[in-house]
TrEMBL record, chain A:
This is ABC transporter substrate-binding protein. It comes from Stagnihabitans tardus. Its main location: periplasm. Residues 1-25 form the signal peptide. InterPro entries: Peptide/Ni-bd, SBP_5, SBP_5_dom. Keywords: Signal. One of its GO terms (biological process) is peptide transport. It is found in: Periplasm.
TrEMBL record, chain B:
The lineage of its organism: Bacteria, Pseudomonadati, Pseudomonadota, Alphaproteobacteria, Rhodobacterales. InterPro entries: BP-dependent_transpt_permease, MetI-like, MetI-like_sf. GO terms for cellular component: plasma membrane. PROSITE patterns: ABC_TM1 (PS50928). It comes from Stagnihabitans tardus. It holds the Pfam family BPD_transp_1. One of its GO terms (biological process) is transmembrane transport. This is ABC transporter permease subunit. Its main location: membrane. The keyword Transmembrane applies.
């Protein structure tokens, strides 16, 4: 009896020590943004949507600072030819992939052609040829100037993959195995549940935008996927996780009430908007579209749905982008008098029950939305605002993962949705005449817009020209009212300050690789 | 009806009557269910709004009452369709037998091998969200139950001597089915329909919770709970009251149903060779 008791005691103390040891190690659990739940792969070339863990597995050629300027990363320096027809990149020496393969000019030469035929091929479309100048120098010969080259190289879709493993693993690359040069290696990945990363101890080539170039301070990082924000918040509150990568506006107050939690807000890259199908009555009439757009009270939505956090949207682009500076007359804001006047002009007269009529038909539309709670709430307010000018909207809710396929049918009249992107080429993505249905939910195909679009996408020699061309394209699209801008959120993360120490300054976009390199677990 | 003299069945019945009355007289409620007053959003229960207001400043009690109308009308209509179709199919299968019986039984068993929610979700995906879609989905989901129950009842009754007597007196198929068989099979089907209505309310709330039921601004209990789930810290009453309504109503239906079974003494019939 005594023996066994002692043994038990011994075993208990050993396991207790092990537990305490585990608690002291640099381990942390983060919850991915709800919009990133269910991303099926870590294959940057094939994916349409990538989560934050991607930025830790891979490095990129160029890093982008909080002010949107470009800085070295795997490329130490670069030169663009005066005519924009070639780019030369000087690569960082001594970089290796997780599987031991070296990173050099040949890697880039093998990597760029892998984009052919994928949805992300447009990122490298202007590169005619990749030339290996020497082991650490690579030259892009361009078929046309591409002022957006540095942005593309800093995008997570151009995370540098290990080309040999990429070809050898095929569709399994990014799912069962994945090799990058990043500060963390993939240990396990269960789609829709969690991703476990372990530190890459050889890492010394981090972006200069972080204080620490490597290796990372955190040894083991788990990214959990929790689709419901309030569940994720409970996990944070009870200590089950250390950080939430997004906090919706209505939970921000709850986070601030907790003594051990900190809320960190940064400029966001999302825009909420209402696309209108220009090919379907009544929105085939531009007056009805303009009226609907001007019936949206952005200020009221900001205050009531989003608790005053974030800002209103008056254009299609986030206001941090220079291309959002369109002429004042093209900006779209709430003007109920104008909306009513336009509908009168278009022949829709106010009828019984506050719904306008024309030729015996009521002004009735269907308004599509996705099932996430914030979209449903926002859509109900939009419905009430449209009703105020005599447009009756019937809401149809689709599962968030199914709605893209629904848009492809082209049956939609109007919808409430959002996008996340920080480059003006998103105007091309959502309003290009060759992507009708989805992404072009508005089914917008206008000859003048197509002309301006071609000029913006491929006819700019340098960044200044590109900004001017995109501003003109964006401006024209706004005047045709294929959508109504609504709201721009802020990015907010919440973390447990007893567990995590964040750097004072995060010189990157959102909480990604740059912030996590300087992050520490408190012991 | 002696069973309803006991307090619990009596209370259940009273609650059900109250809910049905509320649903019928919903238009008399103090506020309008679809007018947003955003300034009064997230109001806690107060003298003005006895159950508080929702995220759009609408009176929660008013929405619960109108929600009762949605939930009850959808589930009762769905079960009525289900009972009518199920009885017709089951009776025809039992009476005619042969390949027709086998075909019906196999089809019905096939739908029975899936959980109701799965069948309902598939159907709503095909028909499209909304009250009609929900109604059809629930009706089909419960069809198997009534078909099998009726079939079993008719099969046992079919061999009884009074049927033989009717036949020897020259009665036709339709006459025997409608006058002798179905009335005798009715009681257990009705009790089972009542209990199924409780399940249907839950199914309707589940579909509403997924955003597939009645579309806003029409309130449904499931939809209200779904909206409230994201606001559970900020305004817990938005999810608590509709949740209570569903729970109380379903429990009341089950208790009243049990009492009905006891008072009609049809336990034995329910236990027939289903």
């Amino acid at each position: 009896m005594t023996f066994s008791f002692k043994k038990t005691l011994l075993a208990a103390s050993v396991s207790l020590a092990a537990l305490m040891g585990a608690a002291k190690a640099q381990e942390a659990v983060f919850v991915l943004a709800t919009s990133e739940v269910g991303t099926p792969t870590y294959n940057p070339i094939k994916a349409g949507n990538l989560n934050k863990a991607t930025t830790l597995i891979f490095d990129r050629m160029v890093s982008q600072a909080a002010d949107l300027s470009y800085h070295p990363w795997l490329a130490e320096s670069w030169e663009e030819a005066a005519d924009g027809m070639s780019w030369t990149f000087h690569l960082k020496p001594g970089v290796t992939f997780h599987n031991g393969e070296p990173f050099n000019a040949q890697t880039i030469k093998d990597w760029i052609p892998l984009f052919a035929g994928s949805d992300n091929a447009y990122m490298v479309e202007a590169i005619a040829e990749v030339q290996v100048v020497d082991d650490l120098t690579v030259k892009f010969v361009m078929s046309r100037p591409e002022p957006n080259m540095l942005y593309n190289l800093s995008s997570s879709f151009m995370s540098v993959v290990e080309p040999k493993a990429f070809v050898a693993l095929g569709d399994n690359y990014g799912v069962t195995e994945v090799y990058g040069t990043g500060p963390f290696k993939l240990e396990s990945f269960t789609i829709g549940q969690e991703t476990v990363l372990v530190r890459n101890d050889d890492y010394t080539w981090g972006s200069p935008l972080a204080k620490n170039q490597g290796p990372a301070k955190i040894a083991r990082l788990t990214f959990r996927e929790i689709p419901e924000d309030s569940t994720a918040f409970l996990e944070l509150k009870t200590g089950g996780v250390d950080m939430l990568m997004t906090v919706p506006a209505d939970l921000m107050g709850e986070v601030q009430k907790e003594a051990n939690l900190t809320l960190l807000t940064m400029p966001g890259q999302d825009v909420y908007y209402m696309p209108m199908n220009v090919t379907k009555a009544p929105f085939d009439d531009i007056k009805v579209r303009e009226a609907a757009a001007k019936a949206i009270n952005q200020e009221e939505i900001l205050a009531s749905v989003f608790g005053g956090v974030g800002s209103v949207a008056n254009t299609f682009l986030i206001s941090a982008l220079p291309e959002s500076h369109v002429s004042d007359t093209s900006k779209i804001s709430y003007d109920p008098a104008k909306a009513n006047a336009l509908l009168d002009e278009a022949g829709w007269v106010m009828g019984e029950g506050g719904v306008r009529m024309k030729d015996g038909q009521p002004l009735k539309i269907t308004l599509w939305t996705q099932s996430d709670s914030v979209f449903r709430r926002l859509t109900e307010v939009v419905q009430a605002q449209l009703k105020a000018v005599g447009i009756e909207a019937e809401i149809t809710t689709f599962d968030s993962s199914m709605i893209r396929d629904q848009y492809k049918t082209g049956e939609q009249q109007a919808a409430v949705r959002s996008y996340n992107w920080d480059n003006a080429d998103i105007v091309d993505w959502f309003f290009g005449g060759d992507r009708l249905g989805y992404p072009n939910v508005s089914m917008f195909n206008d000859p003048k817009a197509e002309e301006l679009r071609a000029k913006a996408m491929t006819g700019s020699k340098n960044m200044e020209e590109r900004v001017a061309n995109f501003t003109a394209y964006h401006d024209y699209v706004l005047t045709q009212f294929p959508m109504a801008p609504i709201y721009q959120p802020v990015d907010a993360v919440a973390y447990n300050k007893d567990r995590l120490a964040l750097p004072e300054v995060i010189n990157g976009i959102g909480v990604g690789a740059i912030a996590i390199m300087d992050m520490e677990v408190k012991e | 009806m002696r069973a309803f003299r006991h307090p619990i069945p009596a209370l259940s019945l009273a609650w059900l009557v109250l809910v049905v009355l509320a649903a019928l007289l919903a238009d008399l409620s103090p506020y309008q269910y679809d007018i947003q007053v955003l300034k009064e959003a997230y109001g806690a229960p107060s003298a003005l709004h006895s159950l508080g207001t929702d995220e759009f400043g609408r009176d929660l009690l008013t929405r619960l009452i109108h929600g009762a109308r949605t939930s009850l009308s959808v589930s009762v209509t769905a079960i009525a369709i289900s009972v009518a179709c199920g009885m017709a199919l089951g009776a025809a299968a039992a009476w005619f037998g042969g390949w027709f019986d086998r075909a019906v039984t196999v089809t019905v068993d096939l739908t029975w091998s899936f959980p109701e929610i799965l069948i309902a979700l598939i159907l709503v995906a095909i028909i499209g969200p909304g009250t009609t879609g929900t109604m059809v989905a629930i009706a089909v989901a419960y069809l198997a139950q009534f078909t099998r129950l009726t079939r079993a009842q008719i099969l046992t009754l079919k061999g009884e001597t009074f049927i033989e007597a009717a036949r020897s007196l020259g009665a036709g198929n339709t006459h025997i089915l409608l006058r002798h068989l179905l009335p005798n099979a009715l009681a257990p089907v009705l009790v089972s329909a009542m209990l199924a209505t409780g399940d249907a309310i839950i199914l309707e709330a589940t579909l509403g919770f997924f955003g597939l039921g009645a579309q806003p601004p029409t309130p449904s209990w499931g939809g209200m709970m779904s909206a409230g789930s994201a606001l559970i810290f900020k305004a817990p009453w938005i999810i608590i009251f509709p949740g209570l309504m569903v729970a109380l109503t379903v429990v009341a239906i089950n208790l009243a149903g049990d009492a009905l079974v006891a008072s009609l003494d049809i336990k034995a019939k329910l236990r027939g060779p289903v």
